[in-house]
Structure formats: C-alpha cells, structure tokens
Amino acid sequence: MSEQAAQRLEEELRRELREAQAAHSQYLSELEATAEASRAARSSMEEGLPGDLDDDPAMTVLTDTSLPDEPRIQVLHQLGPSLSRRDEFIEALLAIVKDRSDSPAVREAALQALGSAAFQVLRFRPHQPAYDDALHDLVADPVPALREAAVGILAQQHDPVVQETLIQGLRGEGSLPVERERAILLLAEDDHLDNLPWLRELYRSGSESVREQSVRFMGSYPDARSTLEGILRDKNESTSVRQQSGASLRHLAPDRFEAVAKEISTDTTDDPEVRTACLTALQHLGDTARVYADTEFVHRMQDVSGDESAPQVAQVARELLERRPDL
Amino acid sequence: MTALKRSTPETDVGARIDALRHLARGRDQLAALLPENLPIYEGRSAAQMGRLRGYLLAAFADTGLPDAALPYVVESLETGHVAYEVAGAAIGLRGLKTPAAGVVAALVRAIDNLSGADATVSFQSYNPAWPYAQPTTALTEVVRTIGHFGVQAQAALPRLEVLAQQRERFSSSVLEEMRRVLDRAGPGDGEHACDAACAGESCGCESAVDLGSDDSCCAEMASAEPVEDPTPMRAMLEDQDGRPERFEEFFRGKPSIVAFFYTRCDNPYKCSLTITKLAALQASLEEQGLAGALKVTAITYDPEFDLPHRLRLYGSDRGVQFGKDARFFRVTSGFQEIRQRFHLGVNYGASTVNRHQTEVYLLNEHGEISASFTRMRWEVEAVLSALEHLFPKPGQAQERAHCPPAP
C-alpha cells in the first residue's frame, strides 16, 4: 500500500470513528432524556428502582414496562455487551424474560442478550443456574419464539429436563413445546439417547433438508449402517441426501463405504454427482493405498476416465489414476 | 415385591426406590441396585441412568448408608458431572455416621467439579415435572452435607472459606449456604494440617480416597488377589492401527496395565482423564527406565463405534505414545467374555454406553488380574506403587499390596 493510500485509509477510519462517537453520544443523551421522563412517571406512581440503579438511565429505560418496545430494545442492542458485566443487569434481563406480562419483543431481545452474556462462560458462571431456570420456565411459555429458543438452548446443553419433555411429547405422553421434526433434531444433539427410531421416522416423513439432517445424525449410530448403505444406493433419493449418507456411512464403517462407493462410482447409470462424490472420497479420504491396490477397480477406472457421457466423473477418474503411487 | 427387570418402566424403578427407603432392611436392597452392570439398566439412556443413580443415592439419607454403598457415593461426588447425580450423592452421604477424611475430600472435589455446572434439581419425588415444588441445587446440597457433618468435616472448612470468597464462581444462594456453614462452624475450626479435603491444593495425596474410619491419607482402592481363570479367552482384538491380536496371546509374557474407556464418553472426569493419566503413567515408566517392563493398554467399551483411527486419535491427543507394548484395542469378537472376566462396571443404552465406572487393571505375565483400581479416581503414583509391590524387580521379595477389595 502506498503512503498516500495509507493516509487516505487512516483519515477514513478516523472519520468513521468520529461519526460513531457522535452517534453514541447522541444516543446516550436521548437515553438520558427517556430515562428522565421514565423516572418522573415512576415517581408520580411511586414506583422506583432499587438503590443506585435509579441513577442508571440504561437500567431505568430497560425495566420500564410502560415505555414502547423500541427504546428498551435499543438499550440491549447499543449497550448490552458492556452492561452484561454487571450482575444487576443480568438479573434485570432474567426478570424481563420470565415476566409473561412484558412485551414479547423485549423479552426476546432480553433472551438474546442473555445468550450473548452466557457465551462468556467463566464470567457467567454465577448466573448459569438462574439462567437455566428461566429457560426451563420458557419451555411452557405462550410465545412460540421464546419457547423455541429456550428449548433449542437447553437441548444443545443436553439438559435432562428438556430432553424428558421432548421425549414425552414425541411419545404422545405430553405436549411438545416445538414442532415434532424440530424436537427430533434437537434430541439428536445427544448421541447417548435412543434417537435412532425417531431419526428413521424423520427420514421417512421429512423434506429433503430434513432427510439430510436425519441421515447426518444417523452417523452416530452403528445400528444405522445398513439403513445408510441403503440410502446411499437409492437412486430415487436426492443427490444431497445420498452424499450425506455416504459421509455418515464412511464415519461409521469406512470399509463398507469403500465397497459401496466403488460400485457406485463405476455404475454408468447412476447420478454423476454421487459418483463424483464417491470417487473423490475414495481418492482423498481413508485407506487410499488399499483403493489403488484393488487392480480390478483401477482397471474399471480407466474405462470411466474415458466416458464422455459423464465428463465430470471422467475428470475425477483421470485425477485418481494420475495420482497412482506406482506411476 | 416383583423383581425389577430390563423392561421395568423407569418410573416403577423410582417407585421401588421409594418403597425400599421406608423398609427396615431397605438399605441393603438399595445398595444391591447400585452396580451399573445389572440387567435392569440395559437399554436405558444415559439420562435415565443419571436420574436413577441420583435418586437411588439420595435414598440412603433415609435408610443409612451401608459400607457397600459408600464407594458409589464417593465415586459420584468425585467424578459426577451431572448436577442431579452429585446432589443425590451429597444427600445420600448424610446417611453416614462418621465421614472419613477421604469422604470429606470428595465433597470438596465435588464443589470444584460442579462450579459452572450447577443446576436446579429436586428430590421431592422421582423425576418431578418442572417447575419443582422443592427446588435445590447440587452445590447447595454438597455444602449442606459439609455443614451436616459439622466438626467431623472440619477439614473441609479452610477450602470452603476460600471458595466462599469466589463470587465469580458461585451463585449468590450457594455463597450464602457456604457462609451459613462457616458461621455455624465458628472461627478456628478446621485449622488442621494435612487434611485430605484440600485435595489438589496443599495435600500431596490428591487422589486419596480413604473410606475407612482411620485418618490415613493415601490408601488406594485396589484388589491384590490374582484372579485365575482357567478358561482361555477367545476374544479377538484390533489395535489402533487395525492390527489383529488374540487377547490370550497379547496379554502374556509380561505384566500389563489395562484401562477401559470409550471415545464418546462425555464425562471429563472419567475416560478422558483416565487416558490422560495412562499417558502420564507411561511417561513415568519411561523416566524410571521401565518402559519395556509393562504393556500399557486400553480397551474401548464401545467397539462398534471406536474404530482404529478413533482409538489412535483419542490416545495420541492425550499424550499416549503408541508402540509395540503400548496399544489401544477394540474387541472384534468375544466382548462378552471380556465383560465377564473383568466384571466390567458398564452398561449400554440403545446406541452406546449409558454408564460406566472408572476401571484400570494390572495383569500379571499370565494375563491374570493382579490388582484393580476401580470406581475411585486413580493416581499414577498409586499404580506405580502397586506395580512395585506386585511385580518386584529381580532380587526383591514379592509383596502383596495391602488393599481393600474393589466392590
């Protein structure tokens, strides 16, 4: 970069910084004004914030449920990261999230802010149990977005309470807090649960993307090997689902994958994309020495490499042959 | 009462625990439900196993804690990573009249382990619905148990005093509980030298789990009775490089250490730690010029999933140096034989292990079990010491390690 260009960049960055600082100052003075009005209204109704929080405009605005959603949500967006270091701010967020009479939009924003704060694992440790309690409360919340977010967060932590709720719901022994499809996928995050029957159900009934996810999760279950092999071979299945099935089978049973992939890659009636994926995996992943040692397969690759009806497959076959260690 | 079976619904097992806690001889029957390899636990999920274990352990608060159950309680305190199980262990421990130093140390270790993983739990009934009528948390229960033992747990107080200052680690309610216990103890209590409760800080015997009534600090949990089994093992193994071995042939010729583990274990205080310590043991043997004297091995509980490349990665990530006498195995046939030979403390859900104990064995040159380190956390030094006793160098008289039998 020339000196002139560097200077221009520096000026530009300085200008952007000045603008951001000005915008932030502007926001803080607007916040102070909103807080002042809020304090006045609260004092006329004899409602106040405890102790020194009364002087904090961010907390005043955030906790004033009589204000419109926008200024309250803006506090979270503008100041959330810096406020999340303060215990009283986390406690205020938890109170908002748990308050079903508060605005759903503000509660959602508060839950997002809590999620960001929880990402700072060490700093968040003292609040984790209360946060989890709030999430457990939300599992039965009437606001679907809050319910779904809470179930998702808890399921990813392998939370036993939410897992039990989801399992009971799937068995018809209770209500499901989220869609059945989503419930199965969330449970599948924990491979120590008996998820394979649900995943098979999902595969039978789901859309292409859901089938793909179900096949991906099946990769944790050795009992799913034959199912995965069947899906990989199924010419009526979509390309993406078959490719994912190949990846999952390779994860569980590399030997089996190698055998099936060799068959598919040399089958001229099969989907060229699946054949290409199989050949690429054989060439780059697993026991490549063994692949090259299979003289019959290598011989068939020579035929494939000249197949003009499937140029993409032929190209990968040529690459595979060129990389033979004996050449 | 009808016998509990694999097909017994989880809630019925919970109801049985409730029934037993009120019977005169219920405590022994409850203790009989503790081994994880019982058929009634087959096919259950890890989450179910955690719930059943926590509820079962907590029941000993009502019945009194028999000696046979104590190792299980200490195990859950030392290696439990799920709040409900640890809470149940802490509550159940109150069924003990006099806690030994190692038991108090386990309580302190549980606080450290659960910092950041505490959660609201309830023992009001088996698997109650949210919201709980009688909520508590695991750390609250652990601290309460320290308070319950009062002067008998005074060795824990210096560490508790330190922990009570750590606002950045614990919730306000747990800190309040710590304060209550410390205030009740009063100043001066717990000013004790070498208490095992300061595990990992100033006590040299970090792993010590003395479950007896005396105050000796570093007893190990090991069996020194060689288990001779005349039936040859037909089990076949495959190592981390895909090489096949016969169990019977490989474990002959020189002593071996065998650890059991599985790569999908989600408890950081069990398999991952076991293999890390196995690597440390291997390094110690190397330093002492004993690298070739012992085979250092590990066998997976999950042979269907733990293919050779996973075994290799798991071991090398934790510092194991693989070689001719340092191998990780999966069992390709005859796993049942191995389960029986070692009385493995493991059971399985639909997909993988649902629960297991920590288990490490020393085999003699005939492949017979000479010592075991099971249930409790084991330390490299203890294994090295047992090796010295069991397999003395030429010229040294062979001694038997003086150790209580494993449960």
Report on the architecture of this protein.
The complex is a heterodimer of chains A (327) and B (407). With 327 residues, chain A is mostly helical. Chain A contains 19 helices and no strands. The two termini of chain A are 46 Å apart. The relative contact order of chain A is 0.04. In chain B, helix 6 (101-114) packs antiparallel against helix 7 (138-149). Chain B is globular. In chain B, strand 8 (346-348) and strand 9 form a beta hairpin.
Keyword list:
heterodimer; A: 327 residues; mainly alpha; B: 407 residues; 7-stranded mixed beta sheet; two-stranded antiparallel ribbon; 38% helix; globular; disordered C terminus
What is the element layout, followed by pairings?
The complex is a heterodimer of chains A (327) and B (407).
Chain A: H1 3-44, H2 57-62, H3 69-83, H4 87-98, H5 104-118, H6 121-124, H7 128-138, H8 144-156, H9 160-170, H10 180-187, H11 196-205, H12 208-218, H13 225-233, H14 239-252, H15 254-265, H16 272-284, H17 288-293, H18 295-304, H19 311-322
Helix pairs in contact in A: 3-5, 4-5, 7-8, 9-10, 11-12, 12-14, 13-14, 14-15, 14-16, 15-16, 16-19, 18-19
Chain B: H1 10-20, H2 26-32, H3 46-63, H4 70-79, H5 83-92, H6 101-114, E1 120-121, E2 136-137, H7 138-149, H8 157-163, H9 172-185, E3 236-239, E4 244-246, H10 247-250, E5 256-261, H11 271-287, E6 295-300, H12 308-317, E7 326-333, H13 335-342, E8 346-348, E9 353-356, E10 359-363, E11 369-374, H14 380-390
Parallel strand pairs in B: 5-6, 6-7
Antiparallel strand pairs in B: 1-2, 3-4, 3-7, 5-10, 8-9, 10-11
Number of helices of chain A: 19
Structural class by SSE content of chain A: mainly alpha
Helix fraction of chain A, binned, reads over 70%
Number of DSSP strand runs of chain A: 0
Radius of gyration of chain A from the CA trace?
29 Å
Count of helical regions of chain B = 14
**Principal-axis shape of chain A:** elongated
Please state the CA-atom Rg of chain B, rounded to the nearest Å. 22 Å
**C-alpha termini separation of chain A:** 46 Å
Strand arrangement within the widest β-sheet of chain B reads: 4-3-7-6-5-10-11
What is the general shape of chain B? globular
- Identify the biggest protein-protein contact and residues per side: A-B, 34 and 36 residues
Helix content of chain B: 25-40%
Q: How is the biggest beta sheet of chain A arranged?
A: none
Please report which band the strand proportion of chain B falls in: under 5%, 5-15%, 15-25%, 25-35%, 35-45% or over 45%.
5-15%
